[in-house]
């Protein structure tokens, strides 16, 4: 018999960079650096071997408790885990043995990472530029205009004199003016993505916050303060979110700002039911009691956030829009007698496509026919230019067969060629259409459409799609999308979940060089023999 105060040790196991053992209590087996400490949450469970080693119900599972270990000899455990008589009469002792499981969560230092710079920069519309070059290059021109003799319209000298005196004076008398009072404002938008929600919940306690990276609006520096356990004890069941002025431009600045804080859905759009905004301009200053402005009861954790679709892969996002009021100015301006509307070139070309007036080429896609204009296609795509006006022209004929493409994809591509915009799509079909359009854009050298599709796909990378997205990006030379996939798969949890998909098996078997590149880009502890390290066991 061991006697009081003695224990049986398990084999050592590594979690959070420290070595641990399970005894009748938990003890650190690796010294902690002087002046340092380790925060951990512990949970012990009696295991039921008859049910594949699952915990034997909550009656025999300790409530997870947090403990700060200061040195090697620091311990944490339960003196009264289970009574001897209760254990002896239970079904959990089999072959004179029992199993105890210990779950250890090392609470690493919470941090906020600056948002990655967008790998993609979608350029502005180049539709007008392409059509302008079409006029200069005279590609596909089918009509010639010959100006006639120029005529000059002249006015009598007497009329000229009148216009320089009384007529001009009369015009000046009729001219009016207006003055405008305008508030000068700067607006910015920042997104705070909370990853590992369950790991931060219940760790800091009420009143403790995690700050976002700073962002600049109106020359001032701001940050979002996220309170996972509430701003105070009255809001401990809630998540609290506040906006803070980190640094005004000068020490004497009093900054007026309007702000709006929103929970974001999976598409990055504000959720109306969880959108809060200041009702009037608030004076925010880094000095004084009005430093923080926000919402104590932003969203309730249990029963609301944790049951919603906004919490996905243990992550959710918060958006904050800040409008800084820089001042009020008075601007005098003359009356505007003529209002020039914005360009409607894309609308007119859309009508031209839909009505088919003047169309001189037809495409057949899976039995469906599409009429178009050779000149416009050639101006927008070097591939179409070669097919319709180059050496390939004789082979195409009046009706061009298009294979390996669905009619709806070709229709969307044509609309983009004519208008630089995509058709309206439901949330469920955006990702699939973006993938097909990316392939079509690469095929016909539509550079801007390809970037638009890349940008759309970057916002739909998750554990189910990451492997397929990576293969697509590599196949079509989409460097931004490829980097976004690598960034997503830099997380051990994401890689582990992605490896369970069929798309990952396809990646590994069909794209070995890409797979090797992925492995090389990850931290050494993420892969071991091309497999994720499985969950650690306390027992050998």
UniProtKB/TrEMBL annotation:
Organism: Urochloa decumbens
Family: Belongs to the Tdpoz family.
Domain named BTB: residues: 359-426
SMART domains named among the record's database cross-references: BTB (SM00225)
Name this polypeptide is given: Uncharacterized protein
InterPro entries registered for this protein in UniProt: BACK_BPM_SPOP (IPR056423), BPM1-6 (IPR045005), BTB/POZ_dom (IPR000210), MATH/TRAF_dom (IPR002083), SKP1/BTB/POZ_sf (IPR011333), TRAF-like (IPR008974)
Functional pathway: Protein modification; protein ubiquitination
Domain MATH, first and last residues per copy: 1-104, 187-322
Annotated stretches, region: Disordered: 150-175
């Amino acid at each position: 018999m061991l006697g009081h105060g003695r224990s049986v040790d398990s084999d050592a196991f590594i979690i959070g960079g420290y070595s641990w053992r399970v005894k009748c209590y938990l003890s650190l087996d690796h010294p902690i650096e002087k002046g340092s400490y380790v925060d951990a949450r512990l949970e012990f469970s009696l295991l039921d071997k008859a049910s594949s080693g699952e915990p034997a119900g909550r009656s025999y599972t300790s409530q997870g408790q947090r403990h700060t270990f200061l040195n090697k000899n620091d311990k944490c455990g339960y003196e009264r885990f289970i009574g001897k008589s209760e254990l002896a009469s239970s079904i959990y002792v089999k072959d004179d043995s029992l199993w105890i499981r210990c779950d250890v969560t090392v609470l690493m230092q919470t941090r906020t990472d600056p948002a990655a710079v967008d790998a993609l920069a979608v350029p502005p519309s180049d539709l007008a530029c392409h059509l302008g070059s079409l006029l200069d290059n005279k590609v596909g021109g089918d009509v010639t205009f010959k100006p006639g003799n120029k005529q000059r319209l002249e006015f009598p000298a007497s009329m000229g004199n009148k216009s320089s005196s009384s007529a001009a004076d009369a015009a000046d008398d009729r001219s009016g003016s207006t003055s405008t009072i305008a508030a000068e404002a700067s607006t910015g938008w920042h997104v705070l993505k909370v990853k590992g929600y369950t790991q931060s919940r219940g760790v800091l306690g009420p009143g403790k916050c995690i700050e976002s990276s700073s962002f600049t609006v109106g020359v001032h520096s701001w940050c979002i303060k996220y309170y996972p356990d509430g701003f105070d004890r009255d809001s401990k069941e809630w998540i609290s979110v506040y906006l803070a002025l980190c640094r005004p431009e000068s020490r004497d600045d009093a900054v007026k700002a309007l702000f709006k804080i929103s929970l974001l859905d999976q598409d990055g759009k504000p959720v109306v039911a969880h959108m809060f905004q200041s009702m009037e301009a608030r004076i925010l200053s880094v000095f004084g009691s009005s430093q923080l402005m926000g919402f104590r009861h932003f969203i309730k954790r249990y029963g609301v956030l944790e049951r919603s679709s906004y919490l996905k892969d243990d992550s959710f996002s918060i958006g904050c829009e800040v409008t800084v009021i820089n001042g009020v100015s008075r601007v005098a301006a003359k009356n505007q007698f003529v209002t020039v509307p914005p360009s409607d070139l894309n609308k007119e070309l859309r009508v031209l496509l839909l009505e088919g007036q003047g169309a001189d080429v037809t495409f057949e896609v899976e039995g469906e026919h599409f009429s178009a204009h050779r000149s416009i296609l050639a101006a927008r795509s070097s591939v179409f230019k070669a097919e319709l006006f180059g050496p390939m022209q004789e082979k195409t004929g009046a009706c061009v067969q298009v294979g390996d493409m669905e009619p709806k994809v070709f229709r969307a591509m044509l609309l983009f060629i004519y208008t630089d915009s995509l058709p309206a799509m439901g949330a469920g079909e955006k990702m699939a259409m973006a993938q097909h359009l990316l392939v079509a854009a690469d095929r016909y050298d539509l550079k801007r459409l390809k970037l638009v599709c890349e940008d759309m796909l970057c916002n739909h990378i998750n554990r189910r799609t990451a492997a397929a997205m990576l293969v697509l990006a590599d196949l079509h030379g989409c460097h931004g999308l490829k980097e976004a996939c690598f960034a997503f798969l830099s997380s051990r949890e994401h890689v582990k979940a992605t490896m369970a998909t069929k798309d990952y098996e396809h990646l590994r078997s069909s794209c070995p060089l890409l797979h090797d590149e992925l492995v090389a880009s990850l931290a050494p502890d993420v892969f071991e023999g091309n497999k994720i390290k499985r969950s650690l066991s306390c027992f050998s």
